[in-house]
Write a structure and sequence with these properties.
The chain has helices at 21-33, 40-54, 75-96, 141-144, 149-170, 191-212, 234-239, 270-275, 292-302, 322-335, 363-380, 425-442; strands spanning 59-64, 100-105, 118-121, 124-127, 225-230, 241-243, 250-252, 257-260, 282-286, 311-315, 341-344, 351-353, 359-361, 386-390. It is of the alpha/beta class and 443 residues long. It has an 8-stranded parallel β-sheet with strand order 11-10-9-8-5-2-1-14, with helices on both faces. A two-stranded antiparallel ribbon has the order 3-4. Helix 10 (322-335) links the parallel strand 10 (311-315) and strand 11. The longest helix has 22 residues, at 75-96.
């Protein structure tokens, strides 16, 4: 058996119950003939950037939607998310004086693991919504039926999103001289916006000085942006795996960076088996039950050559647990000599249900988990390598708190997520300023 198909003999968690396996095979055959969404050389470049993170020389900003939707693959929606990511990156780069590796949780995050396979409303039981790549959000039997044809729709939506991202980041929109233009629409109404505007003024003055001195680096006019998503649906990921013509090595060309989730990181499971054979830089989510032995075993499986930039651990402990649960992992992994990048996901361990029934997160809990992550690395003398957050470029009301405070009674006003609650643009910028301050104190 081809090593790229060895995962098929192992248990694969969180896969849909497709009604017709033959249809899945047919769709996979079509996907296998389509052009790559990303290129092997770009994946190699990201691995080099993440190696700098592992060495303590750079910081990762990874973010975007909890679950992308097909209807969100529009110029306006992509631009708004990208604008927020760029603004956060500018804050971190300038205020923390650190190179920022920008990874969008975009162009592929169309599938989600679920804690329960079914959802019950008013006595009616239907399959859970697993993301637009699998089924529809509407609570009807027709919508919730898994449809393999959606894998093809996901590919095309990802292609549209990536094309838009490349146009925006390479075509002048991401030029540092645009830092004010990114902010016009909310500078007067948001505390984070006004704070950002002051920083943009400082950047303007710095750029004017450099221009007067004859310096105009190419890096000021465009940005590197990489795509990422959870490698959840293995039929899709396998169909988009190609052998690189330069090296003869396999790359999953659905995204630059792929991660294994907390629910699918079993050492003897299909996801770890598939991911260990591809050459992309990869991540693993580590929740509060992860032991140091688990982390070391994952390194042995996924990064046996101990290659800097190959493996990233994305820790999602929860604000109340990160300070106790993370230190033994960082200590033992560091002592083993492995060079992994450590990133904090402060979102997934801090979700709760408000009395109104809305699933939400407190901004203060998100911030406290990041602070705990930095505290641990500061105490151990290791590098806090980045943050992984769920946000949107829109003024949604999904997480409570923040500088322009949202309270639980506000959640109904613009609760638009397809799955988990996201930070809105103001909350995301608040977080960026606070992370920059934390980073400065660790250096």
């Amino acid at each position: 058996m081809d090593l790229l198909d060895s995962w098929r003999t192992l248990p694969a968690a969180q896969q849909p119950e497709w009604p017709d396996p033959a249809q899945v095979h047919g769709v996979a055959d079509q996907l296998a003939k389509l052009p790559p969404l990303v290129f092997a050389g770009e994946c190699d470049q990201l691995r080099t950037r993440l190696a700098a993170v592992a060495r303590g020389e750079a910081f990762v900003l990874q973010g975007g939607d909890c679950a992308e939707t097909f209807s969100g693959a529009t110029a306006d929606d992509v631009r708004n998310k990208l604008k927020t990511l760029l603004q956060m990156s500018v804050v971190l780069t300038y205020a923390a004086s650190v190179p920022v590796v920008k990874i969008g949780r975009m162009a592929g995050q169309f599938a989600k693991p679920r804690s329960k396979p079914f959802e019950v409303r008013d006595g009616v039981e239907l399959p859970a919504y697993r993301g637009d790549m699998v089924n529809g959000f509407g609570f009807t039997a027709e919508e919730r039926a898994p449809d393999p044809g959606r894998l093809l729709r996901a590919y095309h939506a990802a292609a549209v999103t990536l094309n838009l991202c490349r146009a925006f980041t390479q075509g002048g929109y991401a030029d540092l001289r645009q830092v004010h233009a990114w902010n016009h629409d909310f500078v007067s109404t948001s505390p984070a916006g006004r704070r950002y505007e002051r920083l943009a003024g400082e950047i303007d003055r710095a750029l004017a000085f450099m221009n007067a001195a004859g310096a105009d680096p190419e890096e000021f006019h465009r940005v590197e942006l990489y795509s990422s998503h959870e490698a959840l649906l293995l039929d899709y990921e396998r169909a988009l795996t190609r052998i690189d013509s330069r090296s003869g090595l396999p790359y999953d060309v659905s995204a630059h960076f792929l991660w294994i989730g907390e629910r699918t990181r079993q050492l003897d499971g299909a996801h770890v088996e598939f991911m260990r054979h591809i050459r992309n830089p990869i991540g693993v989510k580590l929740g509060p039950t992860t032991t140091a032995e688990d982390a070391l075993a994952l390194i042995d499986k996924l990064d046996p050559q101990r290659e800097p930039g190959r493996l990233t651990f994305v820790v999602r402990m929860g604000a109340g647990r990160v300070r106790d649960n993370l230190p033994p992992l960082v200590e033992k992994v560091t002592a083993s000599g492995a060079q992994v990048a450590w990133i904090c996901d402060p979102m997934h361990g801090n979700t709760f249900e408000a009395p109104s029934g809305y699933k939400t997160r407190r901004f203060d809990d998100v911030l406290d988990e990041v602070a705990g992550f930095f505290d641990v690395h500061r105490a151990l003398g290791t590098h806090p390598g980045g943050v992984h957050i769920e946000f949107t470029g829109d003024d949604v009301t999904e997480c409570v708190g923040g500088g322009h405070e949202i309270v639980e009674d506000d959640l109904h006003q613009r609760y638009e997520t397809a799955c988990d609650p996201r930070l809105n643009r103001g909350q995301a910028l608040d977080l960026a300023f606070m992370v920059a301050e934390m980073y400065r104190t660790t250096k």
